[in-house]
Predict the structure.
Amino acid sequence: MLHIDPATGLLVGVRQVLSPHCDERPSGVAPELLVIHGISLPPAEFGGPWIEQLFAGSLPAEAHPAFFDIARLRVSAHALIRRDGTITQFVPFGKRAWHAGQSQYRGRSACNDFSVGIELEGTDTTPYAEPQYESLAALVAALLATYSTLSAERIAGHSDIAPGRKSDPGPAFDWSRWREMVSQRLRG
């Protein structure tokens, strides 16, 4: 069972690779939205240090042709869930991670201000792995237990908050199956 230390916003017992690409949320703003993303570096390849290096600001542009344009980006997510279900946290949940970019949710713009960003290692078209669904359900249950401002009704994909600009987590992500897993966890 995952547990979040409410004082620090950090997952207990989970690997931390704290990103410099974050800052304080605006005054009086708490996390109210969960955003699910999909990422792979290089594109459609899994494993390796590249995602962590991107979020840490140390991705070497020369390591792969796909990295040339993204190595200088200042991006992060609160957490990454690898194909095997392993979770790495990059930003405390109380802080603002830079994951959503230009975005809008239910008429409210600047989603980074009020959201938690969770990256799944994957692509829009590669089925996500069972351990990822399990870890994501456990993480969301821990977030809902820790932050009363979050709700199971306010969970969106990156594609939902940046339509036309982003497509992740894509059609490979089974929303109904995953929502049922979260519901089961919340029921006990």
Q: What stands out?
A: The chain has a mean pLDDT of 97.
